[in-house]
Amino acid sequence: MTLHQWITDKPDKPCVFIARNKIREFWDYNIWILDYVDGIDTSGQDAMYLAILTGQGDEWGDYSELEAEGYFIVEELDKSGERS
């Protein structure tokens, strides 16, 4: 994973990142956490999935919903969600 520079490929591992989108002539920035959370799969079994969390750790949405023009990886997280 590329740290500390703007990239266009969305992160695919647990990390803290900034996402940016251009709205008219202004840039909109959001800080997110990408991490695995417990859930249930389509067959009703316990499963983990990659989720987008707010800076406070509340779930915002599923990884498939993540879309931005640029990503800045601030910090990688290990599999337990802790700083690596």
Sum this structure up briefly.
The chain is mainly β and 84 residues long. The protein is 0% helix and 54% strand.
Which characteristics define this entry?
84 residues; mainly beta; 6-stranded antiparallel sheet
List the helices and strands and how they pair.
Layout: E1 6-7, E2 15-23, E3 26-40, E4 46-53, E5 59-62, E6 70-76
Antiparallel strand pairs: 1-6, 2-3, 2-6, 3-4, 4-5
What does this entry look like structurally?
There is one protein chain. By secondary structure, the protein is mainly beta. Helix content is 0%, strand content 54%. It contains no helices and six strands. It has a six-stranded antiparallel β-sheet, with no helix packed on it. The radius of gyration is 14 Å and the shape is globular.
SSE pattern: EEEEEE
Largest sheet: 6 strands, antiparallel
Determine the N-to-C terminus distance.
13 Å
Number of helices: 0
* C-alpha Rg (nearest Å): 14 Å
Helical/strand content category: mainly beta
| Unreliable runs | none
Anisotropy-based shape: globular
Number of distinct beta strands: 6
- Proportion of residues in helical segments: under 10%
What percent strand? Answer: over 45%
The strand order across the widest sheet is 1-6-2-3-4-5
Overall mean confidence score, pLDDT: 90
